[in-house]
Design brief:
By secondary structure, the chain is α+β, with helices and mostly antiparallel strands. The chain has 11 helices and 18 strands. GO terms for molecular function: chorismate synthase activity; FMN binding.
């Protein structure tokens, strides 16, 4: 079982993660981790902080001579912006900075204040910030590198911004990172960018939908034996942990609710050269909590972020008087970044289920177990 634990505040010294449960012998490309961190910062509509930070990973433990040791891996990403916040984020007593007392609607400000009894909302927003997802993407990059050994690749793309829905596909997925919104429909992407510009002029924000796809996943990961071990349940849990994600859809998901069963189920066929197969993938690669060999398709529905340049009505937690909410530096649209974070989280769940099925000590043993399993699947048809 993979366990990972993150730490760090948005404007603190850095964001770190410790990953336990990785097998020995995974070849690690540090620059590939840095590329994932860079991808997280991309996307039309991101805020000024993306121009300050140049996220690079530091590896403190668990890797030697380019391979994992089987011991915990510790990663750290330094916050370059910390130099501008040293007084506000002072660890010892005597730090300065105005207390924040005006909670933002839609953020964790008020709920965190009520839960912990702070007199300064900054104590909430620093950890509740999506900046903490830096550690998830760094960890996800390692999971991706592990899965690549078994032919599994994961990517994401933007389906929708506001009410503007991508339709036709005229981009190659290998070119996605070179597009402003990582959208496969170049014409709709232009309209999406115009909507983001409109939101920015209004001091507003805009949400949307992104799709995360895992290709090359074998049948048999996850189980229906217990509710918390079902693969789709595990995917849902981690995806809902991503800030701004309010809906998680697997396969045709939401659309299935308005159709007859005969329109939804993926019919099964067989050819000797191909084995069992389906002509559709409305299940999104998972049936009864178990991967079925088709692509795993997950859609993430993202609300607009709650930090606005034109703030909404709120109440001061100290005076209880009506005020406008706190203004903080923020993005206008984060949907493409959510896709990259979603890739990391999907990689985590699949890697965890993979190690659960094929062992977790060494790459050599896992590869042997995986090869034996594929032979059994071939014999079964």
């Amino acid at each position: 079982m993979i366990r990972w634990l993150g730490a760090g505040e948005s404007h603190g010294k850095g964001i770190s993660v410790i990953i336990d449960g990785l097998p020995a012998g995974i070849a690690i490309d540090v620059e590939a981790i840095n590329r994932e961190l860079s991808r997280r910062q991309m996307g039309y509509g991101r805020g000024r902080r993306m121009k300050i930070e140049n996220d690079r990973v530091l590896i403190f433990s668990g890797i030697r001579h380019g391979k994992t040791l089987g011991s915990p891996v510790q990663l750290l990403v330094i916050n370059r912006d910390y130099k501008n916040w040293t007084e506000v984020m002072e660890i010892g007593p005597g730090g300065s900075g105005m207390r924040i007392t005006k909670p933002r609607p839609g953020h964790g400000d008020l709920a965190g204040y009520l839960k912990y009894g702070f007199d300064d909302i900054r104590n909430v927003l620093e950890r509740a910030s999506a900046r903490t997802t830096v550690s998830w993407v760094a960890g996800g990059a390692i999971f991706k590198q592990f899965l690549a050994n078994f032919g599994i690749t994961i990517y994401s793309h933007t389906l929708r911004i506001g009410r503007i829905q991508a339709k036709k596909v005229d981009q190659d997925i290998t070119e996605l990172d070179n597009t402003p919104l990582r959208c496969l429909d170049s014409q709709k992407e232009k309209q999406m960018m115009e909507l983001i510009d409109q939101a920015q002029r209004r001091g507003d924000s805009v949400g949307g939908v992104c799709e995360v796809i895992a290709q090359g996943v074998c049948a048999g990961l996850g189980t229906y034996a217990q509710f918390d071990r079902r693969l789709d349940a595990r995917i849902g849990q981690v995806m809902f942990s991503i800030p701004s994600v309010k809906g998680v859809e697997i396969g045709s998901g939401f659309d299935s609710a308005q159709r007859f069963g005969s329109e939804v189920q993926d019919q099964i066929y067989y050819k000797k050269a191909r084995g069992f197969y389906r002509r559709t993938n409305r299940a999104g690669g998972i049936e009864a909590g178990v991967s079925n060999g088709e692509d795993i398709i997950v859609r993430l529905w993202c609300k607009p972020i709650p930090t606005l340049r034109q703030p909404l009505n709120s109440v001061d937690i100290e005076t209880k008087s009506p005020v406008l909410a706190q203004k903080e530096r923020a993005d206008v649209c984060v949907v493409p970044a959510v896709g990259v974070i979603g890739e990391a989280m999907l990689a985590y769940v699949i890697a965890d289920a993979f190690l659960e099925k094929f062992g977790s000590d060494t790459m050599r043993d896992i590869q042997a177990n995986f090869a034996a399993y594929l032979r059994r699947l071939n014999e079964a048809g």
